[in-house]
Amino acid sequence: MKKQGIKELNGMPGKHPLSDLLRDDRMPHIWCPGCDIGTIFASCLTAIHESNIDYNDFAVISGIGCSGRAAGYVKLDSFHTTHGRAIPFATGLKIAKPKMKIIVFSGDGDLFTIGGNHFIHAARRNMDLTIICVNNFTYGMTGGQVASSTPFKARTSTTPNGNFERPFNLAYMAAAAGAAYVARWTTLHVRRLTNSILEAFNKKGFSFVEVISSCPTSFGRKNKLGPPLHIIQHFHKISVIKNSIHPKDANLDIEKEIVVGKFVDIERPTFFDLWEEIYPPIREKRGE
Length: 288
Ligand SMILES: Cc1ncc(C[n+]2csc(CCOP(=O)(O)OP(=O)(O)O)c2C)c(N)n1
Description:
- Strands 1, 2, 3, 4, 5, 6, 7, 8 and 9 form a nine-stranded mixed beta sheet that branches.
- The protein is an alpha/beta fold.
- The protein has a single domain, classed as Thiamin diphosphate (ThDP)-binding fold, Pyr/PP domains (Rossmann fold, 3-Layer(aba) Sandwich).
- It is built from twelve helices and nine strands.
- The structure holds thiamine diphosphate.
- The site of thiamine diphosphate (TPP) has 18 residues, from strand 3 and helix 5.
């Protein structure tokens, strides 16, 4: 598929600069006013556009949730799968089509709470996938229930007096489970986020990009965080860039400090490397 230049499209009245990647027929989208998912989606599409990879070689997989809707809005091969199961679908597709670039675009609830088990095992296997996680600290679509990423004491519809459980640090978990690439940005670090997604595409193995994002409707309102712009400005203001630090030190405290940056970028044998080492005849039989 031929890519159109962003500049070229910008000059066309009424055309979105990324319209060659957007399914106009699905617009308007379902995201609430002030939601950050659109920014993250645009970063992802910009990275796809800027990569030297043919559009036909991409697939976007998502689970269920507001973030998960992204798979239905992209003009590429995509699957909108069941809740928490985006990674198993992506793994199956990668095994069937090893040359494809598989992006999983989903929420913190989908990837880490309902689907947490799949996440850690794909990272452990160093499965060649790029995971983009919209971390808005809650189950946004269903009204803002507590998730495994909800900050301690934060109010949600299921913890009206505050969350009494300790949240996961998603970046640290990804690194500990074996991810080859781990980065975290807020939705106001747009260029850095886009660059990280591009780096993640080019990384051999399991790459994870966490995006700290506001959900003004389901999380912001309950925690009296103020209007949407105020929330993301606050996240940006308290964020500190600390590239290459140990992910255990990548603090995430939405009141005081959000450590962002690229934390992990390592070479590790992938699922396919180790498979080939132990079972070369299977790949030969398949003519690969
Ligand atoms: C097995 C199953 N359990 C629960 C649900 C209900 N459900 C739909 S979306 C969602 C929350 C998704 O949250 P998250 O992944 O954080 O995405 P967000 O909506 O915040 O972007 C839930 C619990 C479901 N669809 N399937």
